[in-house]
Amino acid sequence: MRVLIAPDKFKGTLTASEVCVAITEGLHDFDASIEVVSHPLADGGEGTLDLLEEILSLSKVELEVHDPLYRSIPSYYLKSDNTAFIEMALASGLPLLTPEERNPLRASSHGTGELIKHALEQGLTRVYLMIGGSATNDGGTGMAEALGYSFNGQFGSISGINGNTMGTVYGCSNNTGDLLDNVSVTVLTDVQNKLLGPNGATHVYGRQKGADDEMIIRLEQNMQVLAGMLDNGFEDVPGAGAAGGLGYGAMSFLKAELKSGIETVMEITGFDRKLNGVDLIISGEGKMDLQTVEGKVIAGVAAKAEKAGIPFSVICGVADDLEQVQENIKALSIHPLVNEETTSEEAISQSFQLVRQRAYHLIRQFTEGHKNL
Predict the structure, then answer these.
(1) Mind spelling out the 3-state secondary structure of the chain?
(2) Do 35 and 58 belong to one domain?
C-alpha cells in the first residue's frame, strides 16, 4: 500500500513536517510495510516560506527593513535563479507587534515593499508574494511607497503613508523608473474577500489587527478613498481584500496576478508528481471549519484527490461545521484530535502522540474496507 501524506501545520503545536512524521509512525504502528510519501504543504500564509525553504533548493537573502510601525528590523526572502519568494509577514506581519501596539491606522506595509524592491534590484524578475498574517490595512500603499510611488494630499506629498493617511490621498505618481519593467508578480492568498464592504478587508480582519468600531468605520472610509482615487475596478476582485488590501495594492501597483495559495504551493513543489500509484491521501490542519473550504490546504488536497480518483482522509485538531465542510471536501473519513474523550488542552499538549494514534485508527479502518490493497 502506498500512502501520500500532505498536511498543513497544526498552528502552535506541530509543523507540517512534524505532522507527516506523526502520521507516518501511526501508519507503521499498524503495518510497517506501508510505503509512505510525505509532502508537507502550506496555503500561502504565514509559514509558507519556511516550508518552501525545507522542500526546495533556495538561498536566503537577509536585509534590514521597516516593520509595520517603521522600526528597523532584520528580515529576509528566498531566491532561486531569477525568482524571489517573499512572505509579507516577515516585514509587515501581526506577530511583529505586541498586542498593545496593534493599530491598523498607524501600521504600514512599507517593509514588504522594501523586500520586493531589494529583490528586483538584484535582477530577479519573478516574485511570489505570500500575503497572510498582516498587521496592516493600508491597501498596499506603504508597499508602493517603498517601491517608488508617491502619494499626494491636499497640501502636498504624503510621507510614511499608513491606514490613516491613506484617507487623505488625492492622487499618486509612479516614480519607480524601470524597476517594475518585465517583472512578473504572483500573489498567493487563501482568502476570497473583496476590498470593500461587510465582507471586505476592514470589516472581516480589522479587529484582529487592533481596530475598534470607530477605527473600522474610518479605515473603511479611507479604503474607499483609495479605491476611488485609483479607479481601476480591482476592489471587486476576489482576494483584493487579503492582507488589509495588499491584494488590491499588488494588482494596482505591481500588475500582480492573484492565485490560490495552496494551488500555487502544490504547483511549485511538484505535488502532482507524487500521486502516481497512491492508494490513499491523508491531509490535515489544526482547525477545520468553513474557512477550510475557501482555499486552505485540506480543500486543495481534496480537489486533487477527487480529480485523481484517490480516497482521501483527514486528521485535524478540531473539526467545526463538520457537515458543511464534508459536503465540500468529500473525505472518506475525518479524525479530529478533540472529541468526547480528548479535551482541547490535551490535544495541544499531546498533539504528536494523538496524531499518531488517529493515523493508526484511520489506516486500520481504511484497510478493513479495502482488503484487496
Answers:
(1) CEEEECCCCECCCECHHHHHHHHHHHHHHHCCCCEEEECCCCCCCCCHHHHHHHHCCCEEEEEEEECCCCCEEEEEEEEECCEEEEECHHHHEHHHCCHHHCCCCCCCCHHHHHHHHHHHHCCCCEEEEECCCECCCCCCHHHHHHHCEEEEECCEEECCCCCCHHHHCCEEEECCCCCCCCCEEEEEECCCCCCCCCCCHHHHHCHHHCCCHHHHHHHHHHHHHHHHHHCCCHHHCCCCCHHHHHHHHHHHHHCCEEEEHHHHHHHHHCHHHHCCCCCEEEEEEEEECHHHHHCCHHHHHHHHHHHHCCCEEEEEEEECCHHHHHHHHCCCEEEECCECCECHHHHHHCHHHHHHHHHHHHHHHHHHHCCCC
(2) no
CATH number at residue 34: 3.40.50.10350
Q: Which domain holds residue 125?
A: 48-262
- Asked if residue 267 belongs to a domain, the reply is no
* Same domain? 257 vs 119: yes
Check whether residue 74 and residue 32 sit in a common domain.
Answer: no
End residue of a domain, out of 262, 290, 317: 262
For the whole prediction, is pTM greater than 0.85? yes
Q: What average pLDDT values come out for the chain (373 residues) when binned by 10 residues? A: 96 94 98 97 88 92 98 97 96 96 97 98 97 95 98 90 95 95 94 95 96 97 97 96 97 97 94 96 94 87 96 95 89 94 93 97 91 56
Same domain, 8 and 129: no
- Please check whether residue 123 lies inside any domain of the structure: yes
pLDDT at 372 (0 to 100): 54
How many domains is the chain partitioned into structurally?
Answer: 2
At residue 371, the pLDDT reads 61
CATH code, 184: 3.90.1510.10
